[in-house]
Amino acid sequence: MKLTNTFIILIILTAAAILRFYNYFEIPFTHDEFSALFRLNFDSFSELIEKGVKIDGHPAGIQVFLYYWTKLFGTQEWIVKLPFIIAGIGAVYLIYVIGRNWFNETVGLISAAYMATIQFAVMHSQIARPYISGLFFSLLMVYYLSNLILKPPKDFNKNLILFVIAASLCSYNHHFSLLFAVIAGISGVFLIKKEFLVKYLLAGLMIFVLYIPHLKIFFYQLNIGGIEGWLGKPQNDFLIQFIYYIFNYSFFVITITLAIVLFGIFGFEKKKLNYKFIILSFIWFILPFLIGFLYSRYVNAVLQFSVLIFTFPFLFFVLFGFMKKQSTKINLILVLIILLTNTLTLIYGRKHYEIFYNSVYKGILIDHQTLNDKYENLVSVIDSHEKITDYYINKYDYNSDFTFYAESFQEIKDFKHFLKSESKKHYKLYFGCLSSVHPNLVPLIQEYFPVIEIKNNYFGGTTYLFSKGNFDDSKTIGNLDFASEISENWGSIDTSKIKPLPDASGKYYYSMTSDVEWGPLFSIPLNDVIHNRNNFIDISADAKLSDFPEGIILVASLESNGEIIHWGGTDFSDFYLPTSYDNHWQRFHHSVKLSDVNLNRRNILLKVYIWNKAGNDIMIDNFRISLREGNPIIYGLIEKF
Fold this sequence. Notes:
It is built from 23 helices and 16 strands. The chain has about 650 residues and is α+β, with helices and mostly antiparallel strands.
């Protein structure tokens, strides 16, 4: 059989299908998919728009599609995801066709090979949200725009109508695919031949007319702002990290990519080089990022990796657009190298199937049931999403004999009271939680169940089995009991305030009277104690107070060359159980979740201290700072781990 480029693109599409359909019936819903499905149970279209679309922040297109799709075919995972996986495979073919038409077969095949195998594209193909659909619509729009630019006399009206439809689908899909439709549409004004410009401008007007019914929703969502409640403002290295992510966070993928780029540059033919489309690709790739970055910095945070999916493939044209047309054999070799390297890093480097297919919501319930069956003397607490938890309990009949944190505890002190009571009756405690869990909860649990026997990590959460026993001191980086020698990391200590306990136990405490605002200070270079940015810093102190402890704050800050990059504190009142105001020692906690702090700084200094803001009389003892191992894959689908 003769080797052809058609055969090579079939290999690429087959690889794309295998990677997306692998273990197809085991692909779980993500949180965003559950959120969309929970907003489909309405009796009318108008109710869907008012209660299922406007509050979400996305255009109506995909939510409306899911509304009718699930009514027709049901809400099983494989049914809901099917159109999006098909769109993901279709996007691979479209980038090939566009690359072939703009440059040559080689550029199209290389670009398609990357699209078929990188995690960014594979994962979003497996998620029923407006990302891979938007990529498909965006590339479809570009395909018809290319036809209008490159061969306008041929089927001009047909291509123009299809361009209008594709651009309209972009506008109803996602605000960033709408943004790209605007950018691409404006670009077309400068690229289309003058004799067709009037028709093209009328097509642009038609796209706007088709969007008019959505304007009310658009302005409503614009007024409610971005997603800054949980999404932080982008850092200066956002684009570098995004490109790193595109290439699977892999040294091998990047090395091979650079080798292919150099191969293309050294062999390019200047006369045949299509600079116009290389420049256009760069503009289309970079402009949505710049707009999203500036909007996020100065208005509301909206920029995350997923919203750049609609234009990221044009980076491949910037990198490989210099490549001249190669022989079919060379094309096959290049494609096989890309497919093999990216697939191996997807499976083993990024552990995509191991992490993505292992739902934290389901895992929390499975781990609970396993341990509940194994141990009789077990108390269980789950801090998860209530509706998603109910979904899995109803679907799989999982054990529901646990305490749901959000339902049972209004404040942390309520949870402390629960732990104090349950620790008298139970030897072990199971705790399953999402990444959004309050970081103080685990050290609070360890106050009563100090030993972590089992810890299972998931993308987006962790499960623990705690038991009674001795606390592991091996991770302690600072401990001040005022009886032992004080290490050099401690400062701001007035030795005259170190006094013996009146019970003749031989122990000492530190007296902070109402006129003393700042307690002992612990400071240490962060790099001296941590090598994993997913760790926690747990801080605790025992205190005896003369009054209700409002206005006493356990503080931790991170400073880089004098600039505070993180400041956090917990008021003692959060943990205080008012059982007695006299002769009653209690423990207070504060934890720093390092994975939520930007640590890409130099000379970071950790500082820990007690701030007697309200001027209380306090007795302090056992001031401890410890490291706790975090979850290395808690953000593992979007970050390096």
